[in-house]
């Protein structure tokens, strides 16, 4: 009886383990027979109530002053050992060394890998997994870490509620190229088909991140691919990272989800999961909406034009004031250089002396002349 009581639970455990292993071996896809709408039938966790990705409605988020800035550890210390780039048929994965990690969370997390999600229609056609206020970005980068304080490895941690921490970076397109992302994109052609791997030069992982790591959204969710374990603490950065249109095109058109030996070549595109219901979860923010109000492009344009007009107006006023001061100063100088007007009826002493001298000389001259013309008196 005791032996039977021990044997039955052991058999049930083996059956559950075999079923789980078989489920993880099922070749899932994003569309088709085992597409994301059917994931929950083969991977029960994918039908859970805390799934990812989600749409972040900023008006429903809650500011949490206890969310401190995250600190990447060793991201810029890549050393000389090359990284491994892998096409797993679902995305491009870069395996990360275990000296890289993440602090700023309740536990220390060790880096495992990073991968990308993208669409197929080019800029403004979507491709990110997370959305903000219903708007998607062109692509998304995930950096995956496991809780190395509580669990020995990724496999053990991924089934635990506090096992994983993933950083999510939204990617948009612009005119300028992003050299940091070329460290991955330039080597995609070497892993064009599924199951191909190649060593690539190590590079600064932190250069892939946005500059502002203080502003982010935080919520509890899951892996966005099967088996969809609900074990992830998500950090979605508010600031986007920009790449060029040519870089996005390379991301969307280089890889295949099929193997090199397969007859049908299938481009690896639209490898993003649809957003999932939040249910009773609350998305926290590390910043308040009042102090970090995001401006629309129209508001930014209005502010720039207003500032330029203000600067021009101020320059005109300053120029007018300076010109007025200069003209006033010049008139004062000219006025000071003019001789003062003489009062009528009064003459300067020096002028009087000159006139007296002239009169005296004239009198003396007349006397002399009169004296010389008088006839001599007779004796």
UniProtKB/TrEMBL annotation:
Keywords: Glycoprotein, Lyase, Membrane, Metal-binding, Signal, Transmembrane, Transmembrane helix, Zinc. Residues 334-379 are annotated as: Disordered. The gene is ca14. Its EC number is 4.2.1.1. It comes from Takifugu rubripes. Belongs to the alpha-carbonic anhydrase family. Residues 344-358 have a biased composition (Basic and acidic residues). Residues 26-287 form the Alpha-carbonic anhydrase domain. It comes from the Eukaryota. Pfam families: Carb_anhydrase (PF00194). GO terms for cellular component: plasma membrane. This is carbonic anhydrase. The chain crosses the membrane at residues 300-322.
């Amino acid at each position: 009886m005791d032996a039977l009581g021990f044997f039955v639970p052991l058999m049930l455990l083996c059956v559950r383990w075999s079923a789980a292993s078989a489920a993880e071996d099922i070749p899932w896809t994003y569309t088709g027979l085992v597409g994301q709408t059917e994931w929950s039938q083969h991977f029960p966790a994918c039908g859970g109530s805390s799934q990812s990705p989600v749409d972040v409605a900023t008006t429903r988020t809650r500011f949490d002053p206890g969310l401190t800035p995250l600190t990447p550890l060793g991201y810029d210390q890549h050393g000389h050992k090359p990284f491994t780039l892998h096409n797993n048929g679902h995305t491009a994965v870069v395996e990360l060394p275990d000296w890289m990690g993440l602090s700023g969370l309740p536990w220390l997390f060790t880096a495992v890998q990073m991968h990308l999600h993208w669409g197929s229609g080019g800029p403004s056609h979507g491709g990110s997994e997370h959305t903000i206020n219903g708007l998607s970005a062109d692509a998304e980068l995930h950096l995956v870490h496991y809780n190395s304080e509580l669990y020995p490895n990724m496999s053990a941690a991924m089934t635990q509620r506090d096992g994983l921490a993933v950083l999510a970076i939204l990617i948009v397109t612009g005119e300028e190229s992003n050299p940091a992302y070329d460290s991955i994109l330039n080597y995609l052609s070497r892993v064009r088909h599924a199951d191909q791997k190649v060593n690539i030069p190590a590079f600064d992982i932190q250069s892939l991140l946005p500059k502002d790591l203080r502003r982010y959204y935080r919520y509890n969710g899951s892996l966005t691919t099967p088996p969809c374990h609900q074990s992830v603490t998500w950090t979605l950065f508010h600031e986007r990272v920009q790449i060029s249109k040519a870089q996005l095109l390379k991301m969307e058109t280089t890889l295949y989800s099929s193997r090199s030996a397969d007859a049908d070549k299938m481009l690896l595109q639209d490898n993003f999961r649809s957003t999932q219901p939040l249910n009773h979860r609350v998305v926290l923010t590390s910043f308040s909406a009042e102090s970090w109000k995001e401006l629309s492009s129209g508001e930014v344009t209005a502010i720039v034009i207003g500032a330029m007009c203000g600067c021009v107006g101020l320059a005109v006023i300053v120029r007018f004031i300076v010109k007025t001061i200069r003209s006033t100063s010049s008139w004062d100088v000219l006025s000071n250089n003019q001789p003062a007007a003489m009062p009528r009826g009064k003459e300067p002493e020096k002028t009087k002396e000159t006139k007296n001298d002239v009169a005296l000389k004239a009198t003396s001259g007349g006397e002399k002349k009169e004296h010389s013309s008088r006839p001599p008196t007779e004796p």
